[in-house]
Amino acid sequence: MLRAGIVGLPNVGKSTLFNALTAQQAALAANYPFATIEPNVGVVAVPDDRLEPLAKLVKSEKIVPATIEFVDVAGLVRGASKGEGLGNQFLAHIRETDLVVQVVRCFDDESVVHVEGSVDPRRDVETIQIELALSDLATVERRRERSQKALKAGDKAARAEIEVLDKIQPVLEEGKPARAVQLPKDEREIVRSLFLLTIEPTIYAANVNEATLADRESNPHVRTLREIAREESAESVVICAELEAQLVALPPAERSEYLRSLGIPSSGVDRLIQKVFRLLGLNSFLTAGEKEVRAWTVHKGTRAPQAAGEIHSDMERGFIRAEVVGYQDLIGAGSYAAAREKGLIRLEGKEYEIQEGDVVYFRFNV
Predict the structure, then answer these.
(1) Does residue 321 contact residue 347 with C-beta atoms inside 8 Å?
(2) 3 state SS of 322
(3) Can you list the positions of beta strands (E) in 160-317?
(4) What pLDDT sits at residue 29?
């Protein structure tokens, strides 16, 4: 399962956001640094408006959405790359994730302690970036020593690795993330083996208070964070973690009604989950039968046999073909039988790449 890490300075709302994402109170939310020591882990459903109509069409009572695992890790402070605070634990947990959601405080409240003494999104982002870059720099320097020894021993692959390190190291020395370096596919594969912290895609979550949520453009901290995201070609989302954590106690209909009363079109949590899904380069394909309707997650470009393997390894091994119909086509037809009569169901072979919203029935034989 793909994992997204929720990171940030201590006491910026990470655990409160985690509670809202997972619709539970598993993470301790407290007004002091290092309230989170061991990482909290929760599996989060990806919002998908297609599942319920599809379940009604095939008369299935069970719905299983796609999921992403969120990890709420300990807060980071200056010097974390040298072991300050809970730095070593923090860095280790980030290495195990596929994407980083960096929560940045964008509200002023004297009753809520800020570890740096004031609210400054640019400084806070730079603090985390520098610590991660310093940790990555140490990793690069160790790998360089190993690669140089291998090169002297006649390992030709070591030369390609050193060339990649030559591109990344100067960027890290400036305190910038490794993802800022544009690399061809073969070099990206080399970088992936380094497990660098700053290579992972990042979403900046501007944590605001309820008073400025509806008029977020008036919040100077939000504007600053969005500027940072644009500079990095990164994603950003505005969210009120405290409000979202309270909303989970309401039924879905009341939740939507309350958001509309505040002038907010949709849940920040839903927008964040969807951004995570898109940024990871994922597609959802659907299966629909009497037993269940389910969304499955694959990377874009995944071929039909490998998609079948997400359901069961036997289906990939014995793949024959895939019967595919687009979600909108199936809903518009009103039934599988009608879709088949209209020629909307296609037979696809082993080279077919699964598309977003494909409703698929795999034929296999083992």
Answers:
(1) yes
(2) strand
(3) 202-207, 235-239, 282-288, 293-299
(4) 37
